[in-house]
């Protein structure tokens, strides 16, 4: 990224230079106007250097669930590391504020950076719960205030989509491959890139998003579309028909003819007679052409015409031709219809073919399913019984269709070492004052029991010591805990000038 976009990098002492935020739109101007009006008012009142503590947290777990996965911390630290206003940005701020604002404020903005901030955070990817601070930002009140909106922007969606991905992983189970296919339906380019990154963090195995693969090192997966299949009319369109064997020892001069021969064998095989009839020859041509291009990773979309009458037999013919040359087909993808039934029937046929033609492993040919899948459809498939090995999930995953936002907030809890509280008639909106330390207490079996918050100067919980834990807003919710392990959740991710 061009440095001019965000201003010069900070190089304080021997501190390593941290890369810019992934999205070049993340600059000091990615904030609400009232952050700059407050910053001016703080400066005008001489309060801008007062030491403040802000908590970033959320009030309720998303999707009607019981947990959240924290994400977005890396991007927050990148922003803080590189936070500096350019002259062009300062000129724009000056033109956006009333003309009565004094020039000294803009001189103040010219020297602004985050070197005096301290950032404490829970590690990215951790299971977190409401009210417990995900980040604690300590520093001059005007600077911290300017960071409120961009930090919320970087954490809210990241944590929401990571949690959504983790929930899909939980329903699908550990043994299934999960593929993120949401780029075309995501909320713009950044929504697509962020979703790919945080779905991978949330437990997905791969993405179809090539840019995310390049940027974040996420494994890529993908095959062809219905358009590729329907673009063919007959096998006669295929000009180059030769294919070398996997070990390079021989060449099949007419791979298309070999495919046709295998299709004929399938149609006349006693166990399959009457099951496989005449198939769509344009589809067969598309599969053969794709296999010639990608013999080591041939995976076919089999529902362009008819899954059982055409797609499956055509795939099997091509897969068996590849097997004769030493290759192993990647599998099939189902994108419509009754996925439980079709996957089960396909698996039965694969096992019959393995036995009939003595092709080891053919019965385990991979089956991928897509078609607007979500948590509920995965759960329904599990209850019906299916033979799907991998799920390609898009719209409901990357848009977080079931819930629009996580609802993180950013609240002042201390200034000049004096606690501050936000009161409300809605008890869920009351903030918890003072700078905090947060701990996760574990029981005898090694499982976490409860997260607790204490004041910064209160004694830390000790292993084996009986502790009364109380809910901050519900007096009836309290319990004695004897922790067998104590983990401090908040770690310093940006030490500022404190070292």
TrEMBL record:
| An annotated GO cellular component | cytosol
Q: Which residues form the Nicotinate phosphoribosyltransferase N-terminal domain?
A: 29-156
Keyword Manganese, does the record have it? yes
Enumerate the InterPro entries for this protein.
Answer: Aldolase_TIM, N/Namide_PRibTrfase, NAPRTase_C, NAPRTase_N, Nic_PRibTrfase-Fam, Nic_PRibTrfase_pncB, Nicotinate_pribotase-like_C
Query: Does the record bear Cell inner membrane in its keywords?
Result: no
Q: Which domain of life is it from?
A: Eukaryota
Name the Gene Ontology biological process terms.
NAD+ biosynthetic process via the salvage pathway
Keywords for this entry?
Glycosyltransferase, Ligase, Magnesium, Manganese, Metal-binding, Phosphoprotein, Pyridine nucleotide biosynthesis, Transferase
Q: Name the pathway.
A: Cofactor biosynthesis; NAD(+) biosynthesis; nicotinate D-ribonucleotide from nicotinate: step 1/1
Q: How is it modified after translation?
A: Transiently phosphorylated on a His residue during the reaction cycle. Phosphorylation strongly increases the affinity for substrates and increases the rate of nicotinate D-ribonucleotide production. Dephosphorylation regenerates the low-affinity form of the enzyme, leading to product release.
What GO molecular-function term can you cite, just one? Answer: nicotinate phosphoribosyltransferase activity
Matches recorded under Pfam families: NAPRTase (PF04095), NAPRTase_C (PF17956), NAPRTase_N (PF17767)
Needed cofactors, names only, are: Mg(2+); Mn(2+)
Report domain Nicotinate phosphoribosyltransferase C-terminal positions. Answer: 435-494
- According to the entry, every stretch annotated as the Nicotinate/nicotinamide phosphoribosyltransferase domain falls at 331-429
Q: Which residues cross the membrane?
A: none
Catalytic activity field:
5-phospho-alpha-D-ribose 1-diphosphate + nicotinate + ATP + H2O = nicotinate beta-D-ribonucleotide + ADP + phosphate + diphosphate
Write down the EC number.
Answer: 6.3.4.21
**PANTHER family according to UniProt:** NICOTINATE PHOSPHORIBOSYLTRANSFERASE
Of which family is this protein a member?
A: Belongs to the NAPRTase family.
> Briefly, what is this protein's role?
Catalyzes the first step in the biosynthesis of NAD from nicotinic acid, the ATP-dependent synthesis of beta-nicotinate D-ribonucleotide from nicotinate and 5-phospho-D-ribose 1-phosphate. Helps prevent cellular oxidative stress via its role in NAD biosynthesis.
In Swiss-Prot or TrEMBL terms, this protein is called: Nicotinate phosphoribosyltransferase
Organism expressing this protein natively: Kalanchoe fedtschenkoi
